[in-house]
């Protein structure tokens, strides 16, 4: 339970209130430091999985908590960004990303009940979507120009790309699971 990958996952969950506090801290550097915390969380998301596989420390607890920690941090960041910039495009983007995560989580649970969880395993498009999403959110949180680059605008563009990739990856997962979803036999009771 207390393996390095699991500790990294727990640290990501613990970072959420720190991230929120920094985001709202009345200081001129609050968003830069909040973006750094978000980047660290995104890095630990990659690192805990890498270490778990490399060191042979994959555990049921880690397999459960890792995606939960990731989704909690991303959803928190998106809610804060929408509250900070209540535009329709930001709200739609956040709703699509959060909605996709809920849909795919439910789909994976359903497929596991049917014994077909590997049908909805993480795909390459899902990994690319995650990387684009993490980059977009980091830049949107950071928001201040960096080396003359409009980080917020770049973050918005990356977020819209992430939304397209989000929908695309969801369709890939749903298409892979469709034969099981459309089968009328062996439907588990709710």
From TrEMBL:
Catalysed transformations (reactions): a CDP-1,2-diacyl-sn-glycerol + sn-glycerol 3-phosphate = a 1,2-diacyl-sn-glycero-3-phospho-(1'-sn-glycero-3'-phosphate) + CMP + H(+)
Keyword presence, Transmembrane: yes
TM regions (residue ranges): 7-27, 119-142, 157-176
Locations listed in the record: Membrane
One GO MF term: small molecule binding
Pathway: Phospholipid metabolism; phosphatidylglycerol biosynthesis; phosphatidylglycerol from CDP-diacylglycerol: step 1/2
Family to which this protein belongs: Belongs to the CDP-alcohol phosphatidyltransferase class-I family.
Protein name, entry field: CDP-diacylglycerol--glycerol-3-phosphate 3-phosphatidyltransferase
